[in-house]
Specification:
The protein is mainly α. 91% of the residues lie in helices and 0% in strands.
Amino acid sequence: MDVLLRICGVALMALICAVLLKNSNPSGALFVIIAACAVMIWIVFPSAQALIDYCRRLAQSSGMELSILTPLVKTLGVCLTAKITAELCRDAGERAMAVKVELAGVVAGLICALPLISETLRMIGEL
């Protein structure tokens, strides 16, 4: 809850600054938004690391192989990175670039998920 409140505070402060700067200095407003995103990622990172560690412990205690969990976490990271980057492109007025980033994110996510897909097919084949 504390992390969410800090992120909301950073987002609201950055939004106010960006709105005030937008008419006089559009590139400065974009810089404020990018800097705020970097700060928010820095705030979230420890929580994300704790979540990954918890999932790792959960997988180990259940007997699940980490080779199944790793592609899932990588795919999630790729998706989040692509989504954030695409939204930044949209904020900058580059909708076409945002679409290309999203397409690249989908392709990269599928590539990261291939080991999971092949493991699933192998498990189905053993039944």
